[in-house]
Amino acid sequence: MSDIAGKPGETGADALCDTLLANDVDVCFANPGTSEMHFVAALDRKQQMRCVLGLFEGVVTGAADGYARMAEKPAATLLHTGPGMANALANMHNARRAFSPMVNVVGDHASYHLPMDAALTSDIDSLARPMSQYVRRIAGADDVSPATAEAVTHAMRAPGGVSTLILPADAAWGTAPQTAPVKAQLRNPTAADPARVAEAVKLLKSGGKTVLLLTGRALRADALETANAVAAATGATILAQQANARMERGAGIVPINRVPYPIDQAIAALADVDNLILVGAKSPVTFFAYPGKPSTPLPEGCNVTTLADPGDDLPGALQALAEALNAKPAPIPAAPAIPDLASGPLTPETIAITVGHRLPENAIICDESVTSGRDFFRFTWGAAKHDWLQLTGGAIGVGLPLSVGAAIACPDRKVVNLQADGSAMYTNQALWTMAREQLDICVVIFSNQRYAILHGELKGVGAGEAGKNARRMLDFDEPALNWVQMANAMGVEAARAETAEGFTDLFEKATKTKGPFLIEAMI
Hints:
With 523 residues, the chain is α/β, with parallel strands linked by helices. The chain has helices spanning 12-22, 37-45, 57-71, 81-98, 124-128, 144-156, 169-173, 194-204, 221-234, 263-269, 314-325, 348-358, 377-380, 399-409, 421-424, 430-437, 452-460, 468-474, 483-489, 500-512; strands at 27-30, 50-53, 75-80, 102-108, 134-137, 162-168, 210-214, 237-240, 247-249, 257-258, 275-279, 303-308, 363-368, 386-390, 415-420, 441-447, 493-497, 517-522.
């Protein structure tokens, strides 16, 4: 056992910081505790690292997810022992489903203190494993740099993933070798498989209705143009999977719809599909099991084949497919016209119309509108060019922190968070981080004062309408939440909109003003 801390600049914690920086990881979202104080001290000595405090660990990992989706590289997170990481697990799950690169640093007791079974002792390794692609417990100060480089390697390995490092306190304060930081071993995505390309060509020429199901980098503008060329040459349909980490959308970009969330709509949308070609996507399954309904919306007998796996070069696979078909660039289909700005009652539809008309150029939309925003796509295909980030893993509470991370990754772009009120309550602490960092975010809270999605699911599973006890579990209108007061209390300017015209005025103000602004939309 060693309880002698190395000199500043020579500790394992310093080696960890140096190795992260040497591998271009220069943002740390943090919620530290006692076990991590030597890492905090090392971060204090490394001014190249931007340290961002989240007041709840779910904010920390959700922000790291949003950062990774836009920066296309990992941020570090700093979490305090097993309970701290347990608070972070839901948004680690969403990041894992998004294939977001992330390097979690979880502090633990000194190795010699673990047998004492102190109050915060837990099996961090087992807690981390289900939500992480890679887990490594650092063996000592001399293992810090190799372990950190290996964590970055796994986080950045296509298509991206969550790495979790467990840092015992004595590894952080112990004296580290004075050697150059270890570099991560990065590699390019896998090229298209000619056999898979040939099989896709065969299906596209078979005469049946064929859908190319896209996700990941296949949803960037250039890749969508290639997919559009394939569709124009073959009569195929291009479609995005239901939830996607990032989509490029708006005027001048090929419009593409998603597989619907509601099971009956998904079944109807795919009812006559003969062939499904997966481009990084997963074959569709229903979000939940429903009595008497199938677990996949695909019709019986549909042929499913994979052109490219998530870790493959998805734009390259589409290009190889286009070349095999001799498909030429095709005109971009016209986006549906956005209806005129509405007046009168405020509804999800009138909000969507305003966003379609008034979205700033090159904005980033972080969408956790859940039920209220399901129909937003048809009003925003023709909006100004933007990126659209979705809830990928179904664990609610990601929208506000996702916006924090996206804004830090892209400080020159306006971020618009479309946010359900119930989900926002899981991580409302993110508002404080927005204020502290003065992030350029417009938060739109869909305030229906209920878990509207669960009212729908109660019917969907055949359990009937909500009675008194069910409403006590699904509604939160007694007392009603006041988002203007909550935002103000955390330093964010806010206002309430109760009409379509009022919302349009507030949205224009928010998108033309730098810094965080929250609109409570009473729908």
